[in-house]
Amino acid sequence: MGEQTEFTMSTQTKLIVGLGNPGSEYDNTRHNAGWWLLDRLSQQFNVTLSPESKFHGLTARARIHGGDVWLLQPMQYMNRSGAAIAALAHFYKIPPENIIVLHDELDLPIGSAKMKLGGSSGGHNGLKDTQAKLGTDKFWRLRIGIDHPRNSAIPLQPVADYVLKPPKQAERSEINQSIDKAQDAINEWLTGNTQKAIQNLHSK
Fold first, then answer.
1. What residues contact residue 194 under an 8 Å CB cut-off, 6+ apart?
2. Is tRNA-binding set as a keyword in this record (predicted)?
3. Is position 92 annotated in a ligand binding site?
4. Catalytic residue list
């Protein structure tokens, strides 16, 4: 019975969302780390993200493990991301626990990534708006560490300036390594193996 339940969960429609800001000037900024991971997943799944006005973003659908998986890049600014997520989730009747949001995380060091279900937005405007539009915090998040400016060479740099600037080349390399691990964790999450996804991602 347990095996059947896991199979049923793994074949439900799921939604993977990458948070970022639209516009070429933001492409390589720290705040767009969620987009970097989503782009990697779209390549892996061999799908192309295309504009979909009713979902306020770029979308693609992949067939993974016998179930539909939607990829979404909201094309509104970070603090309005929730409208796109809610629109697609409500249209396809995707429950919050089948949604995972990929985003940058100031409170994690560069080179690390973590995932969890529910919890505080931690001041992240994209998560705040997602919680408001979905009416719950009970969705998954995959947090890509970008470190805090207080730990940088310019510790008094405002957070807004820091996240909207590109990381140094060495930092980007470390972020890419964490994205490699995050990509593997997403693949486990899609099978329903959430505990294995968390353990693998959080292990050094």
1. 117, 140, 188
2. yes
3. no
4. 31
